[in-house]
Write a structure and sequence with these properties.
Layout lengths: L11 E8 L3 E3 L9 H11 L3 E5 H7 L7 E5 L14 E4 L2 H8 L6 E3 L3 H7 L5 E7 L7 E2 L8 E9 L2 E8 L5 E11 L2 E7 L8 E4 L6 H13 L7 E9 L7 E9 L11 E8 L9 H14 L3
Parallel strand pairs: 1-6, 1-7, 3-4, 3-6, 4-5, 11-15
Antiparallel strand pairs: 2-8, 7-10, 9-10, 11-12, 11-13, 12-16, 14-15
The chain binds NADP nicotinamide-adenine-dinucleotide phosphate.
Length: about 300
């Protein structure tokens, strides 16, 4: 989710069928067979791009015809075997959504529970089938944050209702500012106390603060540097790792450090890293958004 994603027109549509007890699956299977709902699923997804978790893909076992399939897995070795040339793979949900935005039609979030729960704050529409059953199951549809969503249409079917929802307000969004101090092909990164990943200097905005003000305050507080000139690098929208249902909007700036950084108490470790270095302990904003921009900006 790079750039000004908040203004993207792309529809991100959750499509799911859930029972009265919110069950969507049991031992990897959908616990009902309703041909009219299969036909409905086909009708609303044909020509679009499906994003699904690896477990849901496994339960289907093949890409669905007439749709692009993107499977999300953390397993870097995973492939769709004999269907590998027809199934795209992403290793983070945001990566899957970025990839989907380059493919045909809407982005359809096709489940299961893990993917629905994470994608809810990024979704713009939902097409849900309410099944009038209460089956046993081990996978459930997440609660819909009612203040953020409005029902816009409801069509009764056989033992079910098809329901269309639209987002009416943005999900809660944490505002963050970050500053990339770059010198001699290296960027300053810090690991905060009690955390495991290196990130840019920065943190949450205080009430009433602009991102630039927050970046300057954080730079002073964390590493004792006072940036003179901040150049905007970009605004990035991502899922909040520690607060389900929330987004994080990060505004990143670039500057040249004047003086040597001094580590404050809240910082456990500081590291200057080469822009082309590879580390597996970087925060997503740094790894997936800021470093690629800095590499373009300062080619070797
Ligand atoms: N009724 C319906 O409309 C409907 C629709 C779809 C699915 N379902 C049901 O839902 C159940 C499956 O749901 P589920 O929650 O168990 O599994 P799931 O959401 O389909 O897939 C979970 C897997 O997705 C990958 N994953 C999740 N979050 C990720 C992230 N942020 N980054 C990278 N990979 C990520 C992981 O794969 P790895 O383990 O490979 O890393 C994880 O194990 C099944 O019973 C299925 O039949 C029902």
């Amino acid at each position: 989710m790079t750039g000004d994603d908040a203004s993207d027109e792309r529809r991100v549509v959750m499509v799911a069928a859930y029972a009265r007890n919110r069950v969507i699956g049991d031992h990897g299977e959908i616990p009902w067979r309703i041909p009219e709902d299969f036909a409905h699923f086909k009708r609303v997804t044909i020509g679009h791009t499906l994003v699904m978790g690896r477990a849901t893909y496994d339960s289907i076992g093949r890409p669905l015809p007439g749709r692009t399939t993107i499977v999300v897995t953390r397993d870097r070795d995973w492939t769709a075997g004999e269907y590998a040339d027809r199934v795209l793979v992403a290793h983070r949900l945001e990566e899957a959504l970025d990839l989907a935005a380059t493919q045909q039609g809407d982005t359809v979030i096709a489940g299961g529970t893990q993917i629905y729960a994470q994608a809810m704050p990024l979704a713009t529409h939902q097409i849900l089938t309410e099944i009038a059953l209460e089956p046993d199951g081990d996978a459930r549809f997440p609660e819909i944050p009612s203040a953020e969503w409005g029902e816009v249409d409801r069509v009764p079917g056989p033992g079910l209702d098809w329901v269309w929802w639209e987002r009416i307000s943005a999900p809660p969004t944490l505002e963050v500012a970050a500053v990339a101090f770059v010198r001699d092909g290296q960027v300053l990164t810090v690991r905060k106390r009690g955390t495991s990943r290196f990130m840019l200097v920065g943190g949450k905005l205080d009430p009433g603060e602009t991102p630039a003000d927050a970046a300057c305050r954080e730079a002073e507080e964390e590493v004792g540097l006072q940036p003179r000139q901040l150049e905007p690098l970009g605004t990035f929208l991502a899922l909040a790792a520690n607060e389900p249902g929330h987004l994080v909007r990060s505004v990143a700036f670039l500057t040249v450090p004047e003086g040597e950084p001094q580590v404050a108490a809240e910082i456990e470790e500081m590291r200057w890293m080469g822009l082309d270095d590879r580390h597996d302990d970087l925060a997503p904003l740094l790894e997936h958004h800021v470093l690629p921009l800095l590499r373009q900006r300062f080619p070797r």
